[in-house]
Amino acid sequence: MASEIKVDTVSEKTSANGVTIDGVNIKDSKIVTANSVDSDVYVDGSIDTAHLAADAITGAKIADDAINSEHYTDGSIDTAHIADGQITIGKLATAVLTGATDIGAAIVDADLLLVDDGAGGTLRKTAASRLKTYAGYDGAISTLDIDGGTDIGAALADADEIIVDDGGGGTNRRCDMSRVKTYIGDNTPAFLVTLSGNQEIANSTLTKITFDTEAFDSDGKFASNKFTPTVAGKYFIVLSGRMSGFGDGEEFNLRFQKNGSAHNFGDLKIVSSGSNPLFLAANANLVVDLDADDFIEGYITHNVGAAANLDATYTFMAGYKINGA
After folding, report:
1. Co-location of 177 and 124 in the same domain
2. Is pLDDT of 23 > 70?
């Protein structure tokens, strides 16, 4: 029969190692025998966090699904602890996308947008500049507003710009108005020259008219009493003059010369009729093909019988390129 001792208190008196009862060592009011205390001894909830060593609980010791949202402190999960690609569009609140306030400024290339990549629920960021690429915008124009809200309010000038579809291929480019003139052409070179004073013309002598005053000369093509356009094309030329002192049957003749030789078209002869001296005035017109180095001059002759004056007030030569001819 086993022995049994019943006492109210067992105190350590003689041993420095405590008291051992049935293999359990008690010293200084603590159980010190290794591995002698198991879960049967603990009262539920009796172990608090103060008695857990730091980092003593590992992931392997946490049961699956043992930690839920009730155990998270608000704000305790930061972005560093969210794996890439773990948040889908379905997990975003509507307010996150709509925003409480507007951007309050024009969208610029560097602004970021959220897109559903392939409409598969995967959100990705994209720069606003990619929208222009998607829309076929080539980046050449920062702002295009041709809604016709206001008229330019002035005559078009060479420096004004328009938008053209380059080659009809959908690529918009700006174009100066000066290029429009180049495309459709204009009536230049053009000129108008006059006399600064009356020119004396000898009797029965073909004389070159010395035009020494330029009313205008668009491209500087009139010099030394002749027009040399240097631009091939068809030109309209007019020559006008007036002389006095003519008697009955006397005449004067306006003549064009091309490259120093008489031209067969455009000459005009005026014959006086009457016994008293008369003024005679005439306009000679010419349409002529001129190439890069052709030139035109104006000549006059008369048979008054003596030298006579070509009236500067009524004498001029003018011309221009015929556009589209």
Report:
1. no
2. no
Confirm if 298 and 317 have CB atoms less than 8 A apart: yes
Handedness of CA 15, 20, 24, 26 (dihedral sign): negative
In a domain, 20, yes or no: no
Tokens coding 162: 């328009």
Phi, psi of 195 (to 5 degrees): -100, 140
pTM of the model: 0.50
213 and 130 co-located in one domain: no
For 129-188, the DSSP string reads HHHHHHTT--SS-S----S-SS---S---TT-EEEEEGGGSS-EEEEEHHHHHHHH--S-
Q: How far apart are CA 126 and CA 321, in angstroms?
A: 57
Count CB neighbours of 242 within 10 A: 17
- Cα dihedral: 262, 264, 266, 272 (round 10): 80
- With bands split at pLDDT 50, 70 and 90, how would you rate the model's confidence at 126? confident
Q: How many Å separate Cα 183 from the centre of its chain?
A: 22
Residue range(s) defining the domain that contains residue 127: 108-139
